[in-house]
Amino acid sequence: MTRAKSAGRGMGVAVAVALAWGTAVGAGGPTRPELPPVSDRARAVHDAGMLFDGHNDYPWLIRDEGDMAMSRIDFARSAPGQTDIPRLRKGGLKAQFWSVYIPSDYPNPTRTVVEQIDFVHRLIEKYPDDLQLALTADDVEAAVKAGKIASLIGIEGGVAIDDSFAELRAFHRLGARYMTLTHNKTLAWADAATDERKHGGLNEFGERVVAEMNRLGMLVDISHVSAETMADVLRVSKAPVIASHSSAFALCPVPRNVPDDILSGLKANGGVVMVNFYSAFLVPDARKKAADARAEIRKAHPDRAEAREAIAEWFRNEPGAIRGTVATVVDHIDHIVKVAGIDHVGIGSDFDGIDLWPVGLDDASDYPRITEELLRRGYSEPDIHKILGGNALRALRQAEVVARQLQAETPPQVDDIRHKNANHDD
Hints:
By secondary structure, the chain is α/β, with parallel strands linked by helices.
């Protein structure tokens, strides 16, 4: 999850989508000209590949909506936000890492993540015609072959494990197949990108966390961590690492993006950077410019309802100078390919965790526009298929191979637990 939630949640994602499309706010006026339809060739290339998105925050969005029981919202018809089954199908999604997110300072983090993992399992069980749980790369391929959307679980925020290897293993048993080491706050064992650096990267316990994740076959996710932590992970990890929803620092220099030296290190590691759709990680100063635009609109429209309508109209008609476009996303893909290579880039939309996104990538139905732009730039069909999901699937499979090797020769990491012996009269 990427939106401004950690610095004050601001506009919720469902509200932002409503503003973008004028729904529920009565927005009128002229709209931006419709984008051209995706070509038949692009659709064919797209559908022939395996689109594997590294990060979607739908579980937390539904928690925000107060419908964890799924009694009001029908995922098979039309859900709030940017994701539901019809839009996933239209977008050609084949596999999804559902993010089970926890804010760094949220109470009861372990329980909260368990509740979200439970939600993902119940979501899959409720919609078995479209979703299928996947725990391995083979499971992903089997689900896709069956015509289902392979559904995997990724923990966003290492605070969830409560500094416990036992908790880490328990989450793996519940189905988690990656963990973002931090969210926006530095932990006792790892520095975050957007907080104070306390350890210079990972400390000794953090290195042990990476080692145990390798042993389990759980992908180490370096989105949200500091550049020093990224470097330490690449030094320690024996398996490919991922950045499940990050972009290129060289094109948009914010701490959440991946610098070129880390991109270069991914060649040897075998890892994958999955490009994020959040405008603030794609276009320099996008978040500030958007906030300034909204502030000007509110100043010109003292009436709150009129301001909301005007903001919706601005969002619909903004041509991409602030938000970026599909081409901006592909610029980041191009850069990662140039520095790290074609085998080390993927897609990590961050849908339902963002409140500002590129023109043409409004929701999960719009993924094929990326394929269209890749074709326009001369990418081959095999290379497009690597970007869409082949690289992510390969990294997951390689992590499983490393895990089998480590499990044969390495004992589990064990927490240092000491209990005082009490004297009992009985």
